[in-house]
Amino acid sequence: MGLGDKREGSVVGGKLATAALWVAGLALVGFVASVPLDVKQQFVLSAAVFVAALLLRRSSSRLVVLALMGLSLTMSTRYIWWRLTRTMDVGTPLDLVLGSGLLVAELYAFLVLVLGYFQVAWPLNRRPVPLPQDQSQWPTVDVFIPTYNEPLAVVRTTVLAASVLDWPEDKLNIYVLDDGRREGLREFCEQAGVHYLTRTNNSHAKAGNINAALKKTSGEFVAIFDCDHMPSRSFLQVAMGWLVRDPKLAVVQTPHYFFSPDPFERNLGTFGKVPNEGHLFYGLLQDGNDAWNATFFCGSCAVIRRGPLEEVGGVAVETVTEDAHTAIRLHQRGYGSAYLPIPQAAGLATESLSAHVGQRIRWARGMAQIFRVDNPLFARGLSFAQRICYTNAMLHFFYGLPRIIFLTAPLAFLLFGAHVIHASALMILAYALPHIVQSGLTNLRVQGHYRSLLWNEVYETTLAWYILLPTTMAVINPKLGKFNVTAKGGLVQRSYFDTQIAKPYLFLLVLNLTGMAAGILRLVFGGSEGEVQTLWLNLGWTAYNMMILGATIATCSEQRQIRRAHRVPLRMPALLHLPDGTSVPCHTIDFSTGGMALRPDAPHPLAPGTEVQVELGHRGRSCSLPAVVRQDRDEHGLSLEFRELDLEQERWLVASTFARADLWLSQWGRHDRDTFLGSLGGVLRASMRGFVALGRHVASSSREGFRGTRAGEKA
């Protein structure tokens, strides 16, 4: 036998061994899951598994994470097997209908849990690779910045950041793709030295805009940025190394980082304290996808090889999530993708909850469209792992109905006496509690830096009602609906309670309050011992649902946001030049496109209205920017507002601040690891704020209604 035959035999043997381990592991889980136990034995098994998990989670080994996943799946599989085989006795027709609905929701949650564990089993944590020393070997890159109706102030900062990218000038072209056909933007592009492209129609929205630009450009690679995503100077040098090294690599994606709070973070006061939902995707899920060669293209902050993109017909136009759909088609052709978990661009989050909900509705509908028209389970050319990762991403957006079922399930017994689970309360606890606890414990270990366990419940509950209909209709008819641009850079002029968004959750809250009252009345007037236990179980479930609904209602209490330019923390040396010729050494506290906060190295009071020059140095160069002192806050520093800057001064401000290579990385992933008690305390406080905000809104509306009635009487 030759060396080649030995190697081939070794590879085949390795695959057979891996397959055998999978079969043996699944058989073991199946056996343990299906062994019938009484209540006492089930509690003993659950306690043993829980103690084992507590001991294991102290280790930092990745193998321990896999062991925790195995323990979690064992207890969850036991629960699902028990539900399917022991709890589906046919009682009344109402029992059957409501019980079947709950079981379907639980099966969905179990499937997402299993696929999610697979997806993040072994994150790749890919690092950049260097480009060739000889810059003549670097490829040509076209930078696309598609825009439609966003404020020019938002677009111009991104354009100026792109204009200082560290890449050979003769190998870089920047194109603003304006579907709004705005003369002011065309003039700015001419002044900034970048190309301006437009077309005669807006067919297929952003995807069509990019495809039209592909026909008018010729770079070997295309870097795409949403018009509010400002790239750092190092973006291409970080992202391009893998593409130059591997000719079969079609896409390199980097995180979407947002330096302004989204509506959840602003309304709940969690910005910088609790990871938002995007942090889970870009901090963990994409890294997990990368291990399976299943990184998604996310529409921005990415580089794509032109050849493969043109080979698949350009950006997909059949769905409103054109980015993920395009990635599927590239993977079908055998091309690879990569993810670099290093933020090299930053943008603006949505300003209002209604805009945020609208954006997520579009994502959910688009993923459901792909599930319907190009289902990854059956698409040719995908690997098994790619099918799993894409399927899990799409199934995630079908959580609307299961969430609503979980929020209303205990009401079946409290209001109608229906038994959705045909088992004693003690037996339900014995099987359900280990399933919930073990999955929570495992996810705290796996996702603790990227997602808060209970805050995620609040987030998904807020969106559940609104994604339910779009995802359902997209599966029935994928052509329904249209592409909507997400508004960025807007203002919330006053605080208010968004009754329109809150309506479905106010209705659910009333239902749960009614169920709580009915259950308490039944407790007061007595019942059989078994019924009392079931009442307490359902009352506890309802109390939890009310806590989540209270926090959800808190998200609907919009907080005022009147900053046109969001401040970003940054400490760097600066020099303040005063009208009398004095120079004051300082360091920056934060900055925005409109101003900057500085702290002098030694006390130097300045009167508001003083005209100054701020000298900023970066990479061996410096430039002075005109400003005026707005506020001298002593130990808190000086607040400055920039005077009107010329184009080159504005470009310098962007280059030395927003486009710094280290800025967004220093802001990324600074959250503490989630704990159950910390998460519970935060959600409880938010829930109380939600009920207080609702009470104030009701009282205010009542007073206004009363005054309106009296005014009408006088008239």
UniProtKB/TrEMBL annotation:
CDD domains documented for this protein: CESA_CelA_like
Signal peptide: none
Cofactors required: Mg(2+)
Subcellular location: Cell inner membrane
An annotated GO BP: cellulose biosynthetic process
PilZ domain location: 561-658
Transmembrane segment boundaries: 12-33, 39-56, 63-84, 96-118, 404-433, 463-485, 505-525, 537-557
Enzyme class: transferase
Keywords: c-di-GMP, Cell inner membrane, Cell membrane, Cellulose biosynthesis, Glycosyltransferase, Membrane, Transferase, Transmembrane, Transmembrane helix
Annotated NCBIfam families: CelA, PRK11498.1
Role: Catalytic subunit of cellulose synthase. It polymerizes uridine 5'-diphosphate glucose to cellulose.
Similarity section: Belongs to the glycosyltransferase 2 family.
The name this protein goes by in its record: Cellulose synthase catalytic subunit [UDP-forming]
Native organism: Pseudoxanthomonas taiwanensis J19
